[in-house]
Design brief:
single chain; alpha/beta; Rossmann fold; eight-stranded mixed β-sheet; 10 helices; 43% helix
């Protein structure tokens, strides 16, 4: 389907959240990660709009969703922002898809508002504290913060992006870049919180959330891909290796889509069997 969304704004806790939606049917909410902008989901939304209502948004303090004074990231507030958008569209619940830190916020949403989750797919949520080599990865995170504070945005972005495996693979289209202010907000206000933050996945399991996790085949042994395996162990949930890199849903949408739909079907069967 041609991408032709409706744009809207909902005000929540001091922020005008800019969101856009298209389609008809059950709601899928697409949650951006550290790059902050929802445009990365436009391709998959267009592909699904004939059977789902699809919505995405620019997260708080990112792209169009600005505030007067930027503040430190609050994952529970991010979850409340997601709730505000779902409610603004007139839905009681939604299928949730989050990637990278968007996957972390998806888990947070399911923790805080389990009754609003239809099914949840988390794609490469980088929960480093779950890894067997968590100490090493966390120390690298702390090193990155020091690099940012002492050597600046360009240097820390270079070191971090070196871990984003697969983006330079031959024939792979480039992703849509975020607005220039987004990386600054990420390193100033989000990364320091995300370094050691892990939502209570055991509570999701206890609440019988219908959840599945995904890792991209191009990401190989990147920390955020390996973290998916640990999430699957804790949640005892379906896990998939899917086409693409960390944003494969954006640039290899055609290849990614069958896996996405298969996961939704798997989670629907799991939900009805409980």
């Amino acid at each position: 389907m041609e991408f032709n969304p409706i744009n809207a704004i909902v005000h929540n806790e001091g922020c005008d959240l800019h969101y856009w939606y298209q389609g008809k049917g059950p709601l899928i909410t697409f949650i951006p990660g550290g790059n902050g902008h929802g445009r990365q989901f436009n391709n998959i939304m267009a592909a699904l709009a004939d059977r789902f209502t699809c919505v995405t948004f620019d997260r708080r303090q990112m792209s169009a969703s600005q505030v007067k004074v930027n503040k430190r990231l609050s994952p529970p507030q991010q979850a409340r922002d997601i709730r505000a958008i779902i409610q603004a569209l007139g839905f009681d619940k939604s299928i949730i898809f989050g990637s990278s830190s968007g996957g972390i916020f998806a888990f947070q949403f399911a923790h805080d508002f389990p009754e609003m989750v239809d099914r949840l797919i988390s794609h490469e949520a980088g929960l480093a504290t779950l890894l067997p080599d968590a100490s090493e990865v966390i120390e690298w995170f702390l090193h990155l913060l020091e690099v940012y504070e002492t050597r600046g945005l360009e240097q820390v972005a270079s070191e971090f992006e070196a871990k984003l495996i697969g983006y330079d693979d031959e024939g792979i289209p480039k992703t849509v870049p975020p607005e220039p202010e987004n990386p600054r907000n990420f390193w100033d206000n989000e990364f320091p919180v995300l370094v050691g933050y892990t939502p209570n996945l055991w509570r999701l399991k206890e609440n019988k959330i219908s959840v599945g996790v995904m890792r991209g085949v191009r990401c190989k042994d990147a920390f955020f891909a390996r973290a998916v395996d640990e999430q699957a162990k804790i949640l005892e949930c379906p896990s998939m290796v899917v086409p693409g890199h960390h944003q494969g849903f954006e640039v290899e949408t055609k290849e990614f889509l069958p896996y996405f739909l298969e996961m939704l079907d798997t989670l629907e069967k799991k939900k009805t069997s409980v």
